[in-house]
Design goal:
The protein has 248 residues and is α+β, with helices and mostly antiparallel strands. The chain is built from ten helices and six strands, in the order ααββαααββααααββα.
Length: 248
């Protein structure tokens, strides 16, 4: 009886400030050397995921909407399977809303914007800040949709899983920024801060042995890049297609 009156709108107004209040700002530099906004991008991604969760939930089901706020990620779970494919959601190709009345009201009060814009904003926030790719799990059997948005980059996740020395941290950060690189260029950019050529190459080979990096090519034409799962490769492909669409 003492619990405050709750509806979808009040739930949104309570949850969004809670999950975005503890985002720690950090310096992010875009490829054009301008400073990005990690906090603004993460808030936008969290908002879009929450709105998507509320607009597409199957409210007559027995499973409740659930939002988890972990130190390294948010996870949004709603009853009801996603009505479009994972790729279509991230690219913003089309939208099939389960609750059209809720969607209309959210747009009229300015919470939601144009249709199918949430997925691209979530993807863009991850890409611009070099974060781990968003994960979307659609359980068609139990009619559940989960969206996980990571707050950390790949290097932070690796750092949590294994002990990295300063040289290895530099190499991973370099791989994140450059997407692919040659050993000679990376060693030059180190400015003799991490020891000799052989010392750096030893740390590079250790990361390859740990399946964190991969090498392609032979001899002087060899390039190195981060090892990625098939899902990460798919997200990269979606991001490239989205960038091409926007340019066209």
């Amino acid at each position: 009886m003492n619990y405050p009156e709750m509806n979808i709108y009040s739930f949104y107004n309570i949850v969004l400030p809670k999950i975005t209040s503890n985002i720690n700002d950090k310096y992010v530099q875009d490829e054009d050397l301008t400073r990005g906004s990690y906090v603004a991008d993460l808030r936008s991604a969290a908002k879009e995921a929450l709105v998507n969760c509320l607009m597409h939930a199957y409210y007559d089901g027995t499973i409740a909407i659930q939002i988890e706020d972990r130190p390294s990620y948010w996870e949004f779970t709603n009853p009801g399977d996603m009505r479009v494919s994972r790729e279509s959601f991230l690219r913003g190709q089309k939208s099939e809303v389960r609750n059209s009345e809720i969607a209309t009201l959210f747009r009229r009060i300015g919470i939601s914007e144009k249709r199918a814009s949430g997925g691209p904003r979530i993807l863009r926030a991850a890409s611009r800040n070099h974060l781990m790719e968003p994960e979307i799990e659609i359980d068609a059997t139990n009619k559940i949709t989960k969206i996980r948005i990571w707050k950390i980059d790949i290097r932070t996740k690796i750092d949590d899983e294994m002990v990295l020395d300063p040289t290895e941290k530099f190499i991973i950060d370099y791989a994140i920024q450059k997407s692919e690189f040659s050993f000679s260029q990376m060693f030059k950019d180190m400015n003799d801060k991490f020891g000799s050529n052989s010392t750096v190459r030893k740390r590079l080979n250790h990361l390859i042995d740990e399946k964190i990096l991969i090498s392609e090519g032979n001899g002087k034409s060899t390039v190195y890049k981060l090892e990625k799962t098939s899902e990460q490769e798919q997200v990269d492909k979606i991001m490239k297609l989205k960038n091409m669409e926007e340019k066209l």
